[in-house]
Write a structure and sequence with these properties.
Blueprint: H1 54-65, H2 67-81, H3 102-113, H4 115-120, E1 122-126, E2 130-135, E3 145-150, E4 177-179, H5 187-202, E5 211-216, H6 227-238, E6 245-248, E7 253-254, E8 261-264, E9 267-270, E10 272-281, H7 295-307, H8 320-331, H9 337-345, H10 350-363, H11 365-371, E11 374-382, E12 392-401, H12 407-424, E13 428-431, E14 445-450, H13 469-482, E15 491-494, E16 497-499, E17 512-514, E18 523-524, E19 534-536, H14 537-556
Parallel strand pairs: 3-5, 3-6, 6-17, 8-15, 9-16, 13-14
Antiparallel strand pairs: 1-2, 2-5, 4-19, 7-8, 10-12, 10-14, 11-12, 18-19
Helix pairs in contact: 1-14, 2-5, 5-14, 7-12, 8-9, 9-10, 10-11, 13-14
Bound molecules: 2-acetamido-2-deoxy-beta-D-glucopyranose (3 copies).
One 2-acetamido-2-deoxy-beta-D-glucopyranose binds near residues 426, 440 and 441.
């Protein structure tokens, strides 16, 4: 996960599916989904098991249950964790910063642990440490599948090392958990993908559909040295829209739903991103004869005005939030029959759509975040001395741009609100390189810029119409969960949600999924990116089973040529 993950953008509305104790579902019989499973508002695909490759799959499935195999998975993940591939925000490009050298050690580790992969697949090093594995399929008419993960981890704060139950780079397996930085984010995805390929190779699988793995090196910082460069290579090699689909890390599934359902939540889109710097400048001077408002006072007025005006919400039937809400209402344990009726009516009726939107906004803050561009004033500075007027006061506002909006729309919103303040103080406003508003002289001005040049539009939305890659993924998730023997679930619901950070790969396919196949009891965090990162050992084996099914299922379908 990138370091700017908004933790609230989770699978579904908390109010509809309060997290409860798992234990009260223990005596539930294994039954299929209720009639709601066929709800037109949240269509559900059937579970999808490999059929052409059923014998191969059965053999691997047996292997994956053996102690020898699970031990090997835990050992390989532990060994991967023991190479501390930390990435830092202030990293210079590869070749100019010795802190990248550790990625050479990691490559060496991979070559030693996966010799069959290195002798059978084409391995390309992009920008020295970025890794792309190519397993050629026999049918070149089928678009390849792309699985992504990242090699780097968030640095461990040296002051917190003694708070870890097991040292952060121990990779220790205690019989339940594999411990260490990167255990869940994201070395388990990476190792599970490689073990899957390794197992398929050793069992003589010959893919019809080409399989590509891509592992970046700085997902936790800028991403430009890893995924940024890999994306260019992939687009050059496989073409624009050259892949059937892409699976990258993301949310997994929630098991603790009181009605015994498991909700799996592949991310089908990402919000945009925009850090705006506001600089208010005015002549300085001795504060014995101050103006009525200093730059700090004026900046404060601007911030009050901005916080007083929320960005608009939009609840479009083609949007991610609508699909997510429909699944939460149709299959959530606490939604009343009238709410379900309202949600179904909203499929075609605009009045019902508006009513549903208002209900959701009032009942759950998560929907508010999904439906509108959010703003947060996160940095403010100004002034140097108690008896000197501040010549400049600065604020930085972080925006996460909703699906229906854009960077330009956020700019317009800011200009609209701030120009009124500027006029009131007779100051000029220079916004985002546009012609200045209120030319009141250059000594007193307000300047708006993209603070770090990192503005990003919201992503395209992955199509979820039936019969496409979304169903292939959903059917595979269902098959993995229902055959895992780990759950007494009454059913599995696939519910589309928001994800993060695939921005470099948007040109490669329209079908991008952000999903990691583990449950909310499978990663042991005090909080994301902090001490005591650990992943449940059996969940990593389940990831291998999931990736195996996904690859075999993609290989069997003639879709997405
Ligand atoms: C499922 O339920 C059975 C009995 O109903 C119980 O023995 C078993 O431990 C439960 N499994 C899980 C994973 O909760
Ligand atoms: C606004 O500022 C300009 C330029 O400094 C000045 O000429 C003008 O008189 C000011 N207007 C008011 C209403 O203060
Ligand atoms: C995607 O394609 C567009 C148009 O060719 C290009 O400008 C852009 O840089 C590409 N994006 C990435 C992340 O490669």
């Amino acid at each position: 996960m990138p370091s700017n993950v908004p933790g609230v953008l989770v699978a579904f509305a908390a109010f509809l599916i309060p997290f409860g104790s798992w234990s009260n579902t223990q005596s539930r019989p294994q039954i299929e989904l209720s009639s709601d499973a066929t709800s037109p508002s949240c269509p559900q695909v059937e579970l999808l098991l490999p059929s052409i490759h059923s014998t191969l799959y059965a053999g691997l499935n047996d292997l994956y249950k053996t102690e020898g195999f699970t031990t090997d998975v835990h050992e390989k993940l532990g060994a991967a964790i023991r190479v501390p591939t930390e990435s830092y925000d202030d990293m210079k490009p590869v070749g100019q910063d010795p802190r990248w050298n550790i990625f050479g050690d990691f490559q060496h580790f991979l070559e030693v642990f996966f010799p069959e992969i290195y002798s059978s697949l084409r391995v390309t090093r992009v920008n020295t440490y970025g890794l792309v594995y190519h397993w050629q399929g026999t049918q070149t008419a089928l678009k390849p599948v792309l699985l992504a993960a990242h090699q780097d981890v968030v640095p461990v704060d040296p002051d917190t090392v003694n708070q870890w139950t097991h040292p952060p780079y121990s990779g220790h397996y205690d019989g339940t958990w594999v411990w260490g930085r990167g255990a869940a984010d994201d070395k388990s995805d990476l190792i599970a993908q490689l073990i899957t390929i390794d197992s398929l190779l050793k069992h003589g699988f010959q893919p019809r559909r080409t399989i590509v793995l891509a592992f970046g090196i700085d997902e936790e910082s800028a991403g430009t040295e890893g995924a940024g460069k890999i994306a260019v290579y992939l687009e050059k090699t496989y073409g624009r829209d050259g892949f059937a689909f892409l699976l990258d890390e993301g949310d997994g599934y929630g098991e603790n739903v009181p009605n015994g359902l498991i909700f799996a939540s592949p991310g089908i889109s990402e919000k945009g991103y925009f850090d705006v710097k506001i600089e208010v400048s005015a002549p300085g001077g001795h504060s014995s004869v101050p103006p009525r408002h200093t730059t700090i006072g004026i900046l404060s007025r601007i911030l009050v005005a901005l916080e007083g005006t929320l960005h608009d919400t939009s609840f479009s039937r083609s949007g991610t939030a609508f699909a997510n809400a429909q699944c939460a209402v149709a299959h959530g344990p606490n939604s009343s029959p009238s709410l379900r009726r309202l949600a179904r009516k909203a499929l075609t009726d605009d009045v019902a759509l508006e009513e549903l939107k208002n209900y959701l906004l009032q009942t759950d803050p998560v929907f508010d975040v999904m439906l509108r561009t959010t703003q947060a004033v996160n940095i403010v500075y100004g002034g140097v001395k108690a008896n000197a007027l501040p010549e400049v006061a600065t604020a930085i506002i972080n925006h996460r741009i909703a699906e229906h909006s854009s960077v330009i729309e956020v700019q317009d919103h800011l200009v609209h609100i701030i120009s009124a303040v500027a006029a009131g103080f007779n100051m000029s406003l220079h916004a985002f390189g546009r012609p200045p508003v209120h030319c009141a002289g250059e000594k007193s001005q307000i300047v708006l810029t993209d603070a770090f040049g990192t503005g990003l539009e919201p992503s395209p939305v992955t199509p979820i119409e039936s019969g496409g890659p979304y169903d292939l993924l959903g059917g595979t998730i269902k098959a993995s969960l229902k055959t895992s023997g780990r759950f007494n679930s009454t059913g599995v619901v696939i519910s589309p949600s928001l994800g993060l950070d695939t921005r470099f790969y948007w040109n490669l396919t329209r079908h991008i999924f952000r999903y990691s196949h583990y449950g909310d009891r499978d990663d042991y965090y005090n909080g994301l990116h902090t001490v005591n990162e650990a992943v449940r050992g059996e969940a990593v084996v389940e990831q291998v089973r999931f990736f195996t099914m996904l690859i075999l299922n993609s290989d069997e379908t003639a879709l997405f040529a």
